[in-house]
Model the fold of this input.
Amino acid sequence: MTQNEEDLEEKKLLGSGGFAFAKLTEEEEIKANLGVPHLFLGNIGRLSEDRFSRYYCKVCAKEFADSPLISYENLNEELPGEGIIISEVGEYRCRVCNNIIAIYRKFK
Ligand SMILES: [Zn+2]
Done:
């Protein structure tokens, strides 16, 4: 399946420290939806910065016409007792105050 620009829809993605607006494919949207009326940034994982149009930081109490700052590290760590391997941990942070907008974990 190929995705082109027209398939991308801008969605509001909630995080613990604010929210962001990003263009998502239908597949990513399904992944972020846990059966509730909101989409969560933490369930999406890593999106490239150019997908974001703006974000809101709770600490700054302001919206910025920019993407949040994304940082991540690759791991190979097993969740104790669960047999699940975490392959990546990442954070979306505010560019101004460094507040964490959302954290995500990617599993193998
Ligand atoms: Zn901030």
